[in-house]
Design brief:
The protein is mostly helical and 90 residues long. The chain has helices spanning 9-20, 48-61, 71-89; strands at residues 34-35, 46-47.
Length: 90
């Protein structure tokens, strides 16, 4: 996500562009870059409300079209795909 933006609008537009072109967006957020209160914001931080707005938008706009997976689910999926690929090579 782009830092120093005043609204999450650029994130929403970019996500729409990616989806319209058949792409995939992987969102990885680290809490060190979020601020959760009214403290003075640093140049490399953004409000957690931007992230929440982004997630709300994804939920509304792309309901049923995205996979909100946990790390465990991703690992299980990768293990199944590896096993399937190995089985087809035999």
């Amino acid at each position: 996500m782009v830092l120093e933006e005043k609204t999450p609008e650029i994130w929403l537009r970019k996500l729409d562009w990616i989806a319209q072109h058949g792409g995939m967006a992987l969102v990885d957020v680290h809490p060190d870059y979020l601020y959760f209160d009214d403290a003075i914001i640093g140049p490399r931080e953004y409000p957690v409300t931007h992230y929440k707005s982004f997630l709300d938008y994804v939920s509304r706009q792309y309901d049923g079209a995205y996979w909100n997976a946990t790390p465990r689910q991703v690992a299980e999926f990768c293990a199944r795909m590896t096993k399937a690929a190995t089985a087809t090579q035999d």
